[in-house]
């Protein structure tokens, strides 16, 4: 499946919606709901590269920014290197990933540094049986049955937020994914701060200084992607439902990098 993404409005959205809606065979109202989010936003899904490129050409002809990519080729969690330990040497970023494997990335290889915010939510539901005295039942049964069982539902939830940095490179399609809560910051030495947020910001600034010609973007920090991935675990009586915007963020970062390379921002 090929994604067609809108990366820049050439003219105001309100004036363009009637035209673009005809292309997709939907109402202008429905298209507004799809496109109202922060850019880049998925405009259409097409079955092949040619039909996706046709849509890109039509969007660009109306002065909009647009790119397309094969969704199956967007690096996912299993493709990314997630650094755990790092050192900022004179010519390269070196360290070990979350599996203990060493890596080295020369700064001259870095083409993009895209910051984002990852949000994950977990909702837990525990259902148990509780016995309660029932006066009405006791009267109706002549005292033979004085209680009934009811379901007691307990709910709890948690949310995890962290900043991320997608590091794109010339030699490989998959980026390094630096996660605020996964990095170990001891190598910052005298620059070490009390919180992970401060240390992550320091790491990003030091890396930017060593790769000054790399494209840098941080719109995905404030313009967070909505959660799309859903997982359900456990039996019905003890259910855990988790959501995350990790996949949507990975796609948005890849689209931003592609749009930058093609002059579509």
How would you explain this protein's 3D organization?
- The chain is of the alpha+beta class.
- It has 2 domains: 2-73, Ribosomal Protein L30, Chain: A (2-Layer Sandwich), CATH 3.30.1390; 83-123 and 156-261, no CATH class.
- It has helices spanning 13-24, 28-35, 49-61, 135-140, 196-210, 219-222, 246-261; strands at 2-8, 41-46, 65-70, 83-88, 92-97, 102-106, 110-133, 147-169, 176-179, 215-218, 229-233, 238-244.
- Strands 7, 8, 9, 10, 11 and 12 form a 6-stranded mixed β-sheet that branches.
- The longest helix is centred in the last third of the chain and has 16 residues, at 246-261.
- It is flat, with a radius of gyration of 25 Å.
- The mean pLDDT is 87.
- If helices are DSSP runs of H or I spanning 4 or more residues, what is the number of helices? 7
Instruction: Give the strand content.
Output: 35-45%
- Total domains: 2
| Rg, alpha carbons | 25 Å
Structural class: alpha+beta
Pick out the low-confidence regions: none
Q: Mean pLDDT, as a whole number? A: 87
Q: Can you tell me the overall shape? A: flat
What percent of residues adopt helix (DSSP H or I)?
Answer: 25-40%
- The end-to-end span amounts to 23 Å
Order of helices and strands: EHHEHEEEEEHEEHEHEEH
Q: How many strand elements?
A: 12
Largest sheet: 6 strands, mixed
Which secondary structure elements does this structure contain, and how are they paired or packed?
Elements: E1 2-8, H1 13-24, H2 28-35, E2 41-46, H3 49-61, E3 65-70, E4 83-88, E5 92-97, E6 102-106, E7 110-133, H4 135-140, E8 147-169, E9 176-179, H5 196-210, E10 215-218, H6 219-222, E11 229-233, E12 238-244, H7 246-261
Parallel strand pairs: 7-10
Antiparallel strand pairs: 1-2, 1-3, 4-5, 5-6, 7-8, 7-12, 8-9, 11-12
Helix pairs in contact: 1-2
